[in-house]
Write a structure and sequence with these properties.
The structure holds 2 protein chains of 2 kinds. By secondary structure, chain A is mainly beta. Chain A has no helices and 10 strands. In chain A, the strands form 2 sheets. In chain A, strands 2, 4, 5, 8, 9 and 10 form a 6-stranded mixed beta sheet that branches. In chain A, strands 1-3-7-6 form a 4-stranded antiparallel beta sheet, with no helix packed on it. Chain A starts with a strand and ends with a strand. Chain B is globular, with a radius of gyration of 13 Å. Classes of the chains: A mainly beta, B mainly beta. Chains A and B meet through strand 4 and strand 9 of A and strand 5 and strand 10 of B.
Chain lengths: ~110, ~120
Amino acid sequence: NFMLTQPHSVSESPGKTVTISCTHSSGSIASNFVQWYQQRPGSSPTTVIYEDKQRPSGVPDRFSGSIDSSSNSASLTISGLKTEDEADYYCQSYDSSNHGVFGGGTKLTVL
Amino acid sequence: EVQLVESGGGLGQPGRSLRLSCAASGFTFGDYAMHWVRQAPGKGLEWVSGISWNSGSIGYADSVKGRFTISRDNAKNSLYLQMNSLRAEDTALYYCAKDIKASSIFLSADYWGQGTLVTVSS
């Protein structure tokens, strides 16, 4: 089994840019797609990125996803931060043995 | 508008059973794989089970294998999770999630329901 490791928390000011990392413990991050989910307090998750870098309709282009094979990690970047972006963010991927593996989640504070 | 509405949660005793349902609307249900994902109180997300569009591919997390059974009825636009031999560690909010794909049960969710709470306690 593999793990996805995220920072426990990040914080940034409104209008700035923040990047949340997601490091794959074994194997290649590029072997299978990575998704990113946003969960605001008291709400169900919503998808902000799927298949590494694709945005569902309705998700603003302030959200972007990328993969870095050199660090074996995925990243979610949010630019032009808004207070409404304050939420928990989860990365997720899979492999042939594990159909859905989530990172532990990152709490984003927009102060 | 895609809607996923879960039901069937509640208080279950250890060793007993519960059946969750998810009613889907706003998309062609039979064209997509579906999943159950749970979240224990104050914890992160955990994939529970997935089923392909035609029920030909089914998968379970090791934590529920042999106890939970996923199924779907495309004519009724509904997804189900039969939960047997309940344990205290099954206590969680259970979400129904739509996949972006039809056949693969490797999770790539694009829509989520609001969840139904399952509490396992005597």
